[in-house]
Amino acid sequence: MGKNYIDIENDHGETLRYRKHVNGRGLVAHGAKVHPSALVENGAYVEPGVQIAAGVRVGRGAWIESDAVIGPEAHIEPHAHICAGAVIGAGAHIGVRTQVGHNARIAMGSLIGDDEIINDGEAVATDRRGLRLAA
Question: What is the mean pLDDT of residues 9-13?
Fold first, then answer.
C-alpha cells in the first residue's frame, strides 16, 4: 500500500505536507479542515487554513488557497482557483476555470459561470440562473 501523503516545496522554499483526502484523493495540506463528507477530487489542492464544510465538491485540478472558507453543499468545478481569504456561501456553484479573488465573497446559492474572474474583495450575489443581483 502506497503512502497517504506527499511533501511539496512552496515558492518560499518551505516544505508543506499534504494528505490524500479519503473521499476523492485530492491533496489537503496540514492545517486545513475538510469535512469527511466533502469530495476533493484527485488533482485538487487545498492549502493550510482552508475550511471546507459538509457536502462540498471540489473538482479535479481546483486550487483553494489559504484561509478560504467553502460553505456546505458548494460546488467548485475543475480547474477553478479560489484565492486566499475568499468565502464561498452555502450551495454556491463556481464554474470551470473561474477565479475568485483574494477576500472575495460569493453569496449563498450563487451561480458563477465558467471562465469568470471575481476581483479581489468583490462581493457577488446571483440568482440561480447566474444573473447578478443588486447589492
Answer: 83
Cβ atoms within 10 A of the Cβ of 8, count?
12
**Edge-to-edge strand ranges of the sheet holding 75-76:** 39-40, 57-58, 75-76, 93-94, 111-112
What's the whole-number mean pLDDT along residues 21-49? 95
Strands 105-106 and 57-58: unpaired
> What is the rounded distance in angstroms from the CA atom of residue 41 to the CA atom of residue 63?
11
The CA distance from 59 to 43, in Å, is: 8
What domains are there in the chain, each with its CATH number?
5-124 (2.160.10.10)
Q: Are 27 and 46 in contact (CB under 8 A)?
A: yes
